[in-house]
Design goal:
Radius of gyration: 23 Å
Distance between the termini: 46 Å
Number of domains: 2
Largest sheet: 8 strands, mixed
Strand order of the largest sheet: 3-4-5-2-6-7-1-8
Structural class: alpha/beta
Order of helices and strands: HHEHEHHEEEEHEHEHHHHEEHH
Strand content: 15-25%
Number of helices: 13
CATH class of the largest domain: Alpha Beta
Amino acid sequence: MAFLATLFALEMSPTQLQLYRNCTGRRKPPTSVARYAYLICGRRAGKSFILALVATFLACFFDYRPYLAPGERGTVMIVASDRRQARTILRYIRALLKQVPLLARMIVRETAEGFDLDNRVTIEISTASMKSVRGYTVVAALLDEAAFFTTDEGSASPDAEIVKAIKPAMSTIPNAMLLVASSPYAKRGILYEAHRDHFGKDGDPTLVWQADTRTMNPSVPQSEIDEAYAADPATASAEFGALFRNDIESYISLDAVLACVSDGIYERPAERGITYSAFLDPSGGSGQDSYTLTIGPRLLAAIMPTARTARTCRKRQGPSNSAIHEA
């Protein structure tokens, strides 16, 4: 499989190399195993089975004992929104372990939450909580359907904080891996940010692979996908096309907001002679927004002249016309 060859920097056939370029936006083949990887694929693309394969391989075929303290165990952590979802991957892992006699002999103990292996590695499922993933030595962390983790910074466990809690637990294991797999959803959260910041960049240590359902799994009937697009194009483009959705932004799209923002500027000094107003937007508790306070000058009368000027200055660096219209 081209994705696994990419993930572990294996030699690829010409067909696999072309698929790698199509799905990563990169030109140069990988030269080292990815430490951080994001698999963005449509539904029924086989993401859960891929996570199970990677988990089994990393748990069984590497010796982490030189990096573990006496009595310490390395953990392959399966993280999902809830335990029921994580157990889907655990069932795949159970089958992979028990159907291969060599691997089956490595099982020391099996529980409802995972396996203890005789090489001091534990495969364990966990919920998407920054508290539950702390306190481990992580040799691999596999996050399933991360686009549907909570993204609101005010929540108990936003997705970014979960990743921040996992990364230090990987720091003492040289070949530890973080693999995030999900169908895409809204343009927010760790999955979207990884795509925005790392997709298509040769040499970037963070790998982002994006592929539609049939690219990953040609056995899914095209007729079913066509029916889904006919019924609801926006949903189907995410569910099967692996594209982030534009129709579920809150009031103003993220692209429009970013077009109006100067990078790295969080506040500006007040100026004499200008009247300022405070704008308060409480969070509605939906998990999609934050409690926000903004203080700015009252310049509403200048918006339309500015918009007219912007239309005649297309080459000037600054907010796009579409951003001004939406604002």
